[in-house]
Design brief:
CATH class: Alpha Beta
InterPro entries: DUF3887
Shape: globular
Organism: Ornithinibacillus halotolerans
Strand order of the largest sheet: 1-2-3-4
Oligomer: single chain
Number of helices: 5
Keywords: Signal
Pfam families: DUF3887 (PF13026)
Helix content: 40-55%
Protein name: DUF3887 domain-containing protein
Order of helices and strands: HHHHHEEEE
Number of strands: 4
Amino acid sequence: MKKLILPMFIIALMLVLVACGSDDSDPNTEKYSEKAEEVVSLLNEHKYEEVHAMFDETMEQGLSLENMNQFTPVLEESGDFVAFEKTSVDEQDGLYVTVVIAKYSNLNRVYTISFNDKDEIAGLFIK
């Protein structure tokens, strides 16, 4: 009987761990990860007009198309884009806040891009 306790405990522990695992099958996670990576790609290509067209009204007023040129020196300092290292999506206050870690040849950058329920960009930050 004692020999069965340890294997049963291990099986029970495995079931609990599997049940508590994260569910990455949320369709919004995939959708907003792809949208955020698209935005980063457009920024890397200096296609600011296309990104600006994705802004909601508040972002349009807060960050003019002309002021988006301020991203150019930041992106040039980063070097050549290499890959997306990690992307995560969290829903907060009706927004889908997407954090993208992008690897560049000189520096890595962290993009925080928020989308509203109309899939418009409601926030954009680069660190």
